[in-house]
Design a protein that fits this description.
Chain lengths: 590, 590
């Protein structure tokens, strides 16, 4: 059973991501180290004792659709209500709507626990977080007054309705349409697919945020508007009114996250209780500026998906380590022993487990650092733009790396279990099934790589990424200066990786500047991995420097630097190739 | 739906694995190029039109256990009987027992098709193949007379009963016991787990080959004997007699291959019809020499598991390519186009598909080459030992590389499908679920790596592996001498990879010679991957040299050499490290 790694989470937040320094500066409001520890402890307790025991049953039963209603697995409604009663939904919510205004980095860390205990549970409330962000930034006073309190408390949940069958990653092809009404409201018609938690019985109302197109809208992404469409209309006194004309037509039968209903939503079929066809909606932000509103939510939504991968990866590592310590097979290589050895003593099993641990630790550091950058971008100060760009730069990596790691680590976790890993009751297989969606949704990891290379590298003329790489290099210099033998060849290897990162970065910037986008795109995924491995390994070293008394930190940073990090040079070769071999080889796909 | 890549399979068999030359020498009996093509075409037709349509249903219903009986999914018994009626079970079987005595390489190629159409279907008959091999090599005349004809025709199926709960990969810990009876038979008592096709309704009898221990047997693997235990005893006239005292107690609920029943078998519970407790068994080979009999089957059993990974990988590649050609998203990067482009035109999708194709092609070449080596090791001639050692050398790679590739390619296949890949109806997810077991069973891929490094490299004092590497280098020399620009930097990259392969090989041999097994084991998995990538890429180049008119072959070999192959240098660094960083890091697992 999952046990939240509370100590490691707190350590990474404080000493790697930057929260310690922020607390010392008094930039985190009421949040002190003691309060932080208390919150993490309590979240860990809830994740371990309340959520984790529901995960296997939730997977087995799954969400069930019948007559346009979705029933969640037994006990999940109660679980959700215990969770919101604990105040967990409003951690980052605005204080004037009942939230606690805590940092995003802390929230991300806590979401690691919810997702580690059950990704199908953890995913739901992140959609509500997105709805809160959108309303807070772009909603009218009336909308905010009606919806924010309940979305912050979790009494109602939110959804994001983007995807349509013909428009997956490509929002310019959206067809859902919105018609203006004289009272300032709109009527929405169309279908949306892959809507996470689009329908369920956890809450009495569901607040959909829906992208649609007005009749006179320009073509493409500049003609998209954002609307709020509640499942039930809300009366002036806040009580629930008529059933709106939006229904769940079906849910998907998926590889994993079975307890997370993935809905096809139909707007405007004329079967609501409003007396007319068309789902009643309210504009959020300006007409045709829906995409800008979406971007408000994008950084943190992507971070929270990264956190899903991280949570599952941690759960998989822990489960595999537990198994490897118990399971005995073969003779030990430890001198003087004759008994069967726990398989953790076999070199290849230890290699798998250390690979898992290094990847999880790096992914955690990158994700939390991105959360910290988001927090600082929201604080007043002259460095606000610096941090906003830092957050933008880190977001594609914070989404892609932990989600790739989620799949890799869950798959290694099965391998460590041997035949038992393939048996569903063991639980290792579920983690792979759950993890497999995270590299896909909220922008596939390939799209993250395109975003990183074409939009994030050019920020401030390349100075944003250069400053970040320089910071990473400072860590390496500190490793060198520490003269600690337990870092092995870490600094040499990290230095070489940073050189490769710098070289590929400059080359990509050059290509982008010259309009040679094709060359830049071909190596985008390789670059994203190169960057993430390098940054992640630097962060492991940073942690080891901050906590010199724990020898395992330096040993793990060294293991990564000496065995996983050398990959960056192959990745660098792929980037520098500029897609020449890729272009030549497309003939093999004809 | 799966379409067997008959042309590619035939090409690889003939021009890469060596069958063309063997046919020219007349070393393949009646097998001529025309007959080869006819057999492959017919197998492809059966795989495409008979097996593939049953795969999704087989996955959904799965094998069902009730009252110690296992019911296969609807239609599977008929499917199996159409398959054996087509003579497919006896391809490699001994001619004097009704088999066709065809080469293992051809059989392996055909099994790629069965597994590509449905791995759950393809796996069953490979157990029968193992039973045929064991009986042919070690069975008494009486046993051969009673069982071989029916196992060769497929009227009865075979199983391999090795694993016990306390003894997974470690056969020395087996506890199943065998008692001698005065009539020369034995009685077997004990439990076995993870027995593939241990019980089912495809055939009226099932022939179990069971490892067990005699009361006076030495401890460890030198005290294991092999027994034949039929589900139903066979009367003197060949008709079926009493139900033997062996029953299926349960089947596993697994991640994938749902239509392949994975059974817990109980021997000697006293509920058969023989009038006494203990399953009646007959010794195969000599007492306490059971492991030697197992080794007879091991090379080809491992090859056939590799073929499972290959078949699934090919199916996943094909499905993803079909989707990527149809699915339109985003603007094309092709100049002059404005419509939405098929996603295959996007660089990152093309990169994924080419990676899949290169990995599948390399895995195919390695597996078929191993099959060819097995064939030549069975032919008379002074080079018999050479080929036996070549087969031994290639076996761990032929098992591990295609099965790792199966998981990697199936996972990439899901990614290419985007959100649709996570929906079970698409079928991409099933391929990952099925593929995930192959790196585990028949010796985990970690165990293959240990076998490669500790037992295969030292063959003939290292000359076996050196001769093989020299052959790979000859391919590179031919690439160089071809002066073809479409090979790009292939020969340079391949040359560098071979240098790394040679250096790591010599280092490992040195360590083994000095008894520094720990250093050798730590890098075994990295070495196995390094070796496989290098050999696989050389084989792609060999195919391109043999078929200069098809530009896609050289382009694919080049793509692999320039983007995937550079990994070998990171892997080489890991091997040369000798486990130093691994040993230092084990503190992080405490």
């Amino acid at each position: 059973m999952y046990r939240a790694p509370v100590g490691e989470i707190g350590f990474t937040l404080r000493h790697v991501a930057g929260l310690e320094e922020a607390m010392a500066r008094g930039a985190t409001g009421d949040l002190t180290p003691d309060l932080l520890d208390a919150i993490l402890d309590e979240a860990g307790r809830f994740a371990d004792s309340e959520i984790a025991p529901m995960a296997a049953g939730g997977d087995k039963t799954g969400a069930v659709w019948r007559d346009r209603a979705v029933t969640m697995p037994p006990g999940w409604r109660d679980l959700y209500h215990r969770w919101i009663d604990g105040g967990w939904n409003g951690l980052t919510g605005p204080v004037d709507h009942g939230g606690q205004g805590l940092p995003t980095s802390l929230s991300a860390a806590i979401y690691e626990m919810w997702n580690g205990a059950s990704m199908a549970f953890g995913i739901g409330p992140t959609l509500t977080l997105g709805a809160v962000d959108a309303l807070e930034a772009h909603g009218t006073d009336a909308l905010r007054a009606t919806y924010l309190d309940k979305l912050v408390s979790g009494e109602w949940m939110g959804t994001m309705n983007l995807t349509e069958p013909q428009a997956g990653s490509d929002l310019s092809a959206l067809r859902t349409r919105a018609e203006r009404r004289d009272d300032g409201t709109y009527r929405i018609f169309g279908s949306k697919i892959f809507i996470t938690f689009g329908e369920h019985d956890l809450t009495d109302n569901i607040v959909h945020l829906v992208l649609a197109r007005l009749p006179d809208a320009p073509a493409g992404v500049k003609g998209i508007s954002l609307f709020l469409v509640p499942k039930r209309l809300v009366n002036a006194d806040g009580s629930l009114g008529a059933r709106n004309d939006v229904f769940c037509q079906s849910i998907e039968h998926k590889l994993g996250i079975h307890a997370s209903p993935t809905c096809t939503m139909v707007y405007g079929d004329g079967i609501g209780e409003t007396g007319e066809a068309g789902a009643v909606g309210w504009l959020v932000g300006e007409e045709n500026k829906g995409l800008a509103c979406m971007f408000t939510m994008m950084n943190s939504a992507r971070l929270y998906v990264g956190i899903q991968g991280l949570g599952v990866a941690q759960a998989a590592f822990q489960k595999a380590l537990d198994f490897a310590r118990e399971r005995r097979q073969g003779r030990s290589a430890v001198p003087g022993t004759t008994d069967m050895a726990p398989i953790v003593e076999h070199a290849d099993v230890a290699r798998m487990l250390l690979t898992m641990k290094a990847l999880v630790g790096s992914a955690r550091a990158i994700a939390y650092s991105c959360g910290h950058a988001i927090d600082r971008s929201r604080q007043d100060g002259e460095d606000r733009r610096f941090w906003a760009e830092r957050a933008s730069l880190l977001t594609p990596m914070a989404k892609s790396f932990p989600t790739d790691v989620g799949v890799e680590v869950a798959s290694l976790g099965i391998q460590v279990h041997g035949g038992m890993g393939f048996v569903e009751e063991t639980g290792a297989a579920r983690l792979l099934r759950d993890a497999r969606i995270a590299p896909i949704y909220e922008g596939t990891n390939g799209i993250q790589a395109i975003d990183l290379v074409t939009r994030k590298l050019p920020l401030s003329g390349g100075e944003t990424v250069r400053a970040y790489i320089a910071e990473l290099e400072e860590i390496v210099t500190s490793v060198e200066q520490s003269n600690r033998p337990d870092f092995g060849r870490s600094s040499e290897r990290l230095r070489a990786a940073i050189a490769a990162l710098r070289e590929t970065t400059e080359r990509l910037l050059e290509w982008m500047a010259r309009g040679e986008t094709g060359a830049a795109l071909a190596g985008a995924t390789a670059y994203q991995r190169l960057f993430s491995l390098t940054a992640g390994n630097c962060y492991l070293a940073k942690g080891a420097l901050a906590d010199a008394d724990v020898p395992s930190r330096a040993a793990l940073a060294r293991f990564m630097a000496e065995t996983l990090l050398p990959d960056v040079h192959a990745l660098s070769a792929e980037v520098m190739d500029g897609g020449e071999s890729l272009r030549a080889a497309t003939v093999a796909l004809n």
